[in-house]
Amino acid sequence: MRVLCFLLLGFLYEKVSGDRSFTIDDANNCFRKDGDCFHYISGSIHYFRIPACYWKDRLLKMYMTGLNAVQVYVPWNFHEPQPGMYIFDGDRDLEHFLDLTKELGLLVIIRPGPYICSEWDMGGLPAWLLNKQDISLRSSDPDYLNAVDSWLSVLLPRLRTRLYNNGGNIISVQVENEYGSFLACDYSYMRHLYHIFRLYLGDDVILFTTDGNTDYELKCGTLEGMHATVDFGPADNAKKAFDLLRRYQPTGPLVNSEYYTGWLDYWGESHSTVSAELVSQGLQTMLEMGANVNMYMFEGGTNFGYWNGADYKKTYKPITTSYDYDAPLTEAGDPTDKLLALRSVISKFLPVPQGPMPPPTPKYNYGYVTLQKVGDLQDFLDILCQGGPVVTRYPVTFEDVKQYFGFMLYRTRIPWEIPDMAILSDPFNGVHDRAYVSVDGNFAGVIERDHVRSTNVTGSSGDWLDVLVENMGRINFGAFFNDLKGLVANLTLGGDLLTDWLVYPLNIDGLIAEGWPHAPGNHIVMTTQTESHEGPVIYSGTFRITAKGDTFLKLIKWTKGQVWINGFNIGRYWPDRGPQVTLYVPGNILSTAEINNITVLELENAPDRLLVLLLDRPILNGTNKGV
Ligand SMILES: *[C@@H]1O[C@H](CO)[C@@H](O)[C@H](O)[C@H]1NC(C)=O
Ligand SMILES: *[C@@H]1O[C@H](CO)[C@@H](O)[C@H](O)[C@H]1NC(C)=O
Ligand SMILES: *[C@@H]1O[C@H](CO)[C@@H](O)[C@H](O)[C@H]1NC(C)=O
Ligand SMILES: *[C@@H]1O[C@H](CO)[C@@H](O)[C@H](O)[C@H]1NC(C)=O
């Protein structure tokens, strides 16, 4: 009986909202919303790159620009960090984010993946998938599909009542992402996803695919039953791109699902910018053609913590902490000239809401903070790795020990006397991604994937050889997805294989979240320290503020590392490599009532004066220095 009631309620619900409809009109090449021909002008925003308390502010600014929709990815690995463990609260509260879009009168184009690229770690796929050896990602491999199915069985039902036809504001749903760029070209995988999406979302929702505008990509990425769309930027010829799309999608609305307003940055390359003029002209051209456009990104945000991805183009290329993207709203959510230029184009096609654009939020110059050395990272192994090390003959990976992010220390004893120098070498290019080497606590150098394949060491038989390995972000695009981290191959010393390792997975974030190293009682270790500022060292400091707001952290003459403020991991810094010089510090993590705590893990070299600066503006275009 109870079953019948539920069924009946479900039926009534769908009937009541039956006058709402969002469909495709193939005869007139447009979307139809409640019967009327409809075009969207949308912008991408990633809730996972913005603190939740700022979501509404950013969405309001998008609404005030005249957008009628927003496009949103859902990163699987953000919500299911361990198999079967789901997080949908705080900064991961997708449903709260969707509630806000609805409250502001914005429609939603949602892109649940399971793969999303997005310059996000592993393109949104959880690294724990790699625990199954040789898993074939983004394919019909049953191990991959089982994990996908169970994730989608959790995610998609949360979206169902939010679909436009069911009374919500989600007008369309993308399946996979740029699948045509992936060499597998596995139609049965795409067909499987299609059926799963239909199973949970119903037959009447618009499903679509997005691909680059080449024949190969459109051939492998599109599938019967899903509306094909393309992505391209202002430098591309819109007419040519849409003409090509028409060969695969002869009828229905033309859609550019990712019209690039800017571009991402890699460490060691120049900062990307695209002029407001070019971007707004390109938008106008497409709108004049009657196309639907989503601007990627409209608000880029930040790769906090360890979430940045990497590309692999001849070499491994990690993406910066800032995902500002030179987008119309800055990383800190402020309107730019580009936004105003786009708004004036939009106003020729759609009524733009009256009233002023919210002004930039205040930014604070809190000044210098002096840090102190807490200790060498190696001094804290017992508290950073409370379970003790993994004892192993050959190196194991991060994934092997189920530590998916951050840092692990690989320790072995130098097997013989090295009176002069011996070469510690990475003959198989197995350092994923950067290693900080020391002998008996003395820093010896760095090994870097694809770039620096050895370093010289000296020492005595029995000395500890420590290799701290940093995971700098998993590859998010292309063919090399099975990007295991740590030492994924053996190292040699003077040509001989090193064996018998102690591997310490380091829970730095967990410890810092508990108040370390600021909490009283933690400072005793300081007396035993050397004054050396070389190699991996923890520093900390405190500062007080009287007014709270966004600020930007500049680590003057520091080299490379990770920063936490009040327990929140604000990301990687690497001013030595550039182009990003300052880190965005969202005001919500600061406190006016209490002392603010800053912790820095510097991996290579701290300056003589242990100063950092909290500045009122970002510097994202510092000089870039290759390897
Ligand atoms: C390592 O030592 C060799 C000779 O032993 C030398 O040619 C090389 O420049 C040294 N490398 C570094 C990075 O110091
Ligand atoms: C290290 O070398 C040994 C012996 O050749 C081999 O069995 C092992 O698989 C290698 N380990 C890694 C991680 O490559
Ligand atoms: C900073 O650390 C101190 C000592 O543990 C703690 O009392 C204080 O609450 C922390 N401040 C913030 C803003 O979390
Ligand atoms: C960096 O950007 C700022 C602000 O847009 C600009 O004033 C400055 O000239 C730029 N610097 C370089 C080196 O391009």
UniProtKB/TrEMBL annotation:
The active site is at E178 (proton donor), E258 (nucleophile). Residues 536-592 form the Beta-galactosidase galactose-binding domain. Keywords: Glycoprotein, Glycosidase, Hydrolase, Signal. GO terms for biological process: carbohydrate metabolic process. Residues 1-18 form the signal peptide. Residues 395-507 form the Beta-galactosidase 1-like first all-beta domain. It comes from the Eukaryota. Residues 31-348 form the Glycoside hydrolase 35 catalytic domain. One of its GO terms (molecular function) is beta-galactosidase activity. InterPro entries: B-gal_1-like, BetaGal1-like_ABD1, BetaGal_gal-bd, Galactose-bd-like_sf, GH, Gly_Hdrlase_35_cat, Glycoside_Hdrlase_35. Belongs to the glycosyl hydrolase 35 family. This is Galactosidase beta 1 like. It comes from Leptobrachium leishanense. The gene is GLB1L.
